[in-house]
Recover the amino acids of this structure.
């Protein structure tokens, strides 16, 4: 399983907004320039993030985006699920999956459940704040995450 460009860019966009969020909203043009992301593609991603209540928009000539919550209250899991959907390694372990007829005898089912649980533990245990330089310093991390 791989996270798509959409998911990776969404993380970069959210970190950028978190770092530059202040009194004035962060404009799409500024984010696109700093992150080297196509404006049109970025607008599609931002639309998904806004519909998922992770960003809120400010309309007008001086418009742009603010985080809808504090960086500590937004997890990587929230961002990735908004852009990628469910991150299950197999359909039989998704939260809304119908019971697989072979789950009782399938040798892979238990492995897929463990992988899914591990994925969720990691992405739900890392916040947007943790991805910011000041969050990394507070957590004692070394180096910037590759998004």
């Amino acid at each position: 399983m791989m996270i798509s460009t959409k998911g990776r860019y969404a993380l970069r966009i959210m970190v950028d907004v978190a770092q530059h969020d202040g009194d004035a909203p962060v404009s799409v043009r500024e984010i696109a320039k700093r992150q080297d992301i196509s404006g049109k593609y970025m607008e599609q991603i931002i639309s998904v993030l806004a519909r998922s209540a992770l960003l809120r928009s400010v309309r007008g000539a001086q418009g742009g985006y603010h985080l809808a919550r504090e960086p500590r209250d937004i997890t990587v899991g929230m961002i990735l699920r908004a852009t990628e959907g469910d991150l299950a390694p197999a359909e039989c372990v998704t939260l809304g999956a119908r019971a697989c007829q072979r789950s009782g005898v399938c040798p892979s089912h238990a492995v897929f459940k463990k992988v899914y649980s591990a994925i969720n533990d990691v992405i739900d245990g890392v916040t947007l704040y943790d991805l910011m330089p000041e969050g990394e310093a507070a957590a004692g991390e070394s180096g910037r995450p590759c998004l």
About this structure: The radius of gyration is 17 Å. Confidence is low (pLDDT under 50) at residues 137-144. The longest strand covers residues 55-58. The longest helix spans residues 109-125.
